[in-house]
Please model this.
Amino acid sequence: MLEAAERIAPMSGDTVVMARIGRPHGLHGEVTVQLHTDDPERRLAIGNVLDTEAQRGLGVPRRLTVRSTRVHNGIWLVAFEEISDRTGAEGLRGTRLVLDAELAADTDDDDDDDDEGWHEDDLVGLEVRDPVGAVLGSVTGLEIGTAQDRLVIELTDGVRAHVPFVEAIVPEVTESHVVIDAPPGLFDLYRNA
Model:
């Protein structure tokens, strides 16, 4: 049973995202995961059955059973009973491992005082401004990284960019907007790609 308090990035509707599956690792079905939970040891324990959200038509099982977990160079690697090889693991890329929102909220209540970070649902939809106040675009996502997280933003010209979510570049986050003090040329990297 899930009892410990933790932070989990809420998802739309009735579920919250616990992790996102990344690229395959090795030949036996292991995948990297981007964690959105403070308690991966419990959530990704061997034998746990996890609900999934993926694009339709990809053939991703609705539920996956954790076969093994390990940390390699700071990156969580997970294998599932239903996936035995690299080809199957490749098909999981982008899949979200989710929890029932009520269950996650029940385990999250005790952690509110310790919560110093931002959840993806707090950020998505916020306007992005430069330090002078000019609108640059809007936040469309948050990618969790091993060294640092990245804001995903859609610029006003429709270009999608990734910005390190560090205080030097994102000095202010409010309920209505974030301020991005981008180094010169940062957005040009995405416009010219």
User: Anything to note?
Assistant: Residues 9 and 107 are 13 Å apart (CA to CA). The first strand starts at residue 9 and ends at 10.
